[in-house]
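Record type: monomer structure entry
Structure origin: computed from sequence
Chain ID: A
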Amino acid sequence: MPRVPRTPWWLAWSGCGLAGSVLYMVLPYSLPSVTLASVIGIGMCAMMVTGARRYRPAGIGSWYLFAAGVGTWIVGDAVFAQQVLLGGGMIYPSWADAFYLGAYPMLSVALFRLTREPGPLRSSTIIDSAIIAVGLGIVYWTFLIEPILADTAMPLLTRLVTAGYPTAGVLLCAVITPILFRRGPRTPSLWLITAGSVTALAGNIGYSLFFERIPATVLFGSFLVAYALWAGAAGHPSMAQPITGDRDSLGRSRLLVLTASTLLVPAVLLVQGERGASGMSWAAVAVGSMALFILVATRMSGYISRVDSQARQLRDLVMRDDLTGLPNRRAFEQRAATAVAAAPCHMIMIDLAGFKHVNDRLGRAAGDQALIAVAELLRLCVRDGDVVARMGADEFAVLVHDTLPADGLVVAGRLQELLRHPVHAGEHELLLNARLGVASSSVPSTASPDDPCLGAAELVRRADTARYAAKSTGGQLVEYTPALDERAEAAERLGADLRHSLDDGDFHVVYQPIVDLGDSSTVAVEALVRWVHPVRGFVSPVAFIPVAEDNGLIVELGEWIMRTACRKLSEWRRVLGAAAPLYISVNVSARQLSEPGFPAVVTTILTETGLEPAALLVEVTETAIFGGGTAIEAVESLHRSGIRIALDDFGTGHSSLGLLRTVPVDVLKVDKSFVDEIAEPGGNPVIVDALIHVSNGLGLRAVAEGVETEEQAVYLRDLGYHYAQGYHFGRPSPDPILVATVPAAPPVRESPVR
C-alpha cells in the first residue's frame, strides 16, 4: 500500500487557523466565537515562536517582536469581549483600544525588518516608507483625523483614540506598500507575510472607515486570517532564508508608488478647492509638502550618489583586467599617452610562447593560474611609478619611466632574467619561454627623424614589432630599431606576393630521392616546394616559409604541396610500375597540424589520388609537436589511419627522447648538421652514432639527411644506417632520376605497437 505523504506541520496549523477564521466570521458574536478567536490567536502566536526557535533565522528578534504585537492584539480582543459579553456593553475608548493601538508600532517595526535585506538599514528604504506615510498622512489628516480632532463635542481622549486608528493605518500602509512593490525573488514565507499584511491592512481600513457598515465578526475575522497567514510564514522553512534583491532598489513600480504619494498633496488641494471647503488646514498641507520635498530630494540625492558610485565601479571594471587585477589595454594606453607626452619612457611588450600549450595540456584553470603568477612577478619586479598591464590573452606590457636613459633596458633585462625561470601555477611548475620587445620614446621615427614627439600608439607598435622580431628569430629580448620596420615591411610585401603567387601558380614542387645505402636504389622521395617569383626571381624557402607560417598561408600552400606530391606519386606508379618510389614524404608545419580537420584533408587527398595511407610519410618537426595539444592529436589521428610519421631535423629543436615514446613516430630523420661532422677534420660524429642505436632500439627507421660525399655515405652505412638523402644521391628536381633495384627495396617497416 503506497504511503500517504504527511502534511507539513506549518501547513496543517495554518489551514486550521484559516478554517477557524472563516467559521468565526459566520458565527454570531458570542462566547463560543470569542473562545474560538482566542484559541486561533494563541495558537498562531505559539506557531510563530515555534517556527522562529526551530529555524533560527538571522532576524529571530523581529519574529519575537511580531509575535508580541499579535499577542497584544489578542489581549485587546479579550478585553473587548469581556466588556461586551460580561460587562454589559461596549465602552469606548477602553483598555482594549490601548492594546489595539499599542500593537501597531511593534507589528510595523517587525514587518519592516522582516521584509528587507538583512544588515544595516538603508536610508533609502526608510525614506520610501516616510514618503508614503507623509503622502497618505496628509490625506488622512485632511479628511479623517483633523475633523475628528476638531469635533469638540467629543471628549479629548475619545478624539485622540478615534484619530489613532487611521494614524495606525497610515503607519501600516507605509510599511506594507513597499512590500507589495518590492523587486527580486520572494520566498514562500515572504509571500505569506505579504498576504497577511495586506489582509491586516484591509481590516484596519474597514475598521477606521466602515465600522458601522461591515459586521464586526467579518472585520475581526480578517485579522484572524492575517494571524494564520503570518503563522504560516513563521512555520515555513524558507523563513530562515535571507531576503535578497530589494536593497536600495528603485524599480518602476516603486517609482510609481512614490510619485503617486507626492501627488496626493496637490490632489487634496484640488478636491478641497472643488468642494469649496473653507476650513482647509493650510499649515498641515504646507508642512506636509515641505516634508515631502525634503524626503524626495534626499531620496534622489542618495540615488544619484549610488549611480555615481556604480559608475565609478564600472569605470574601474572597464579599465581593469578581471583575472589578474592589472590595468587592461584601454587603461594602459591612456596612462601611456600621458606618460609619453610628459617625459621619455620605455615600452616593453611581453608574450608567453608556451602559454597555449599550458591551456591545451593542463586546462584553462592552470592557464589562468599561470597568468596570475606572471602578473604578480611583473608587478613586484617593476619600480614604483612604472605601469604593468595585461593586454589580452598571454600578452603583457610594461611602461617604464626613464629617470635615466637606460632605465628601460635595465628593467627589461631584469624581466628577461626573471621570466627565464619556471613559474608556479597551483601544483604545476611551468616554463613559459617569454619573448620581450623593447621600444624607447626617444628613438626618432624613420618617417620624420627630426620629430621628437612620439605617441603612445606608435610606441606600443614599435615594442610589438620588436617582440615579433624576437619571435621570428627565436630570441628572448629584442630592442626596437628602425631597421625592424624595414624588415617587417619587407615581410608584409613578401606575404602579399605569396598570396598573388599562390593564385598565379608561381610555386612548383621538386623531389629529392631517399635511397637505400646498400645498393643506392630509390625507395622514396621527399617533396619540397620552390618559389620562382616573376620579379623577385628565386625565393628561398628559408625566407618565405616563416612568413607563410605567420600569416596563415602555409595552410593553403601546404595542402597544395601535398595534393601535388600525391598526384606525382600516383603518376609514377602508373608509368613506372614497380620502379616507382614506395612512398612520398611531405613536410607539414605546426600551423597545419593545429588546423581543425587537418587529418580529414589528408585522407581526402589520398582518396582523390588513389593512394593507400602507407604511401604517404608526413614529416613533422620536434618544435611542432613538443607542446602537445591539437598537434599531437592530429599526428595520432593520421597514424591511426595508416599514414606514417617522420620526426624531421631530429636533435635541432626541443629535443626530447620522451617524444619518441609518446608520439607515434615511424621514421627518425637525422639532421644534416650532425651528418656534416663526419667530414670535418678530427670530427667525432658521436650523435650520428648514438641516434642509430636509439632508432634500432625503438624499432624506428633512421634516414640521414644532407649526405654530400661518398665518405659520409660509407661511414653511415658502416654505422648501420640503411637510408639517406642528400646532394650525393640527387638534387631536388621536378623529375628526379629514380634508380630501381632488383629485387625492389622492402617497404618501410611498421612501427611497434604503443
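Annotation 1: The longest strand covers residues 522-533.
Annotation 2: The chain has a mean pLDDT of 83.
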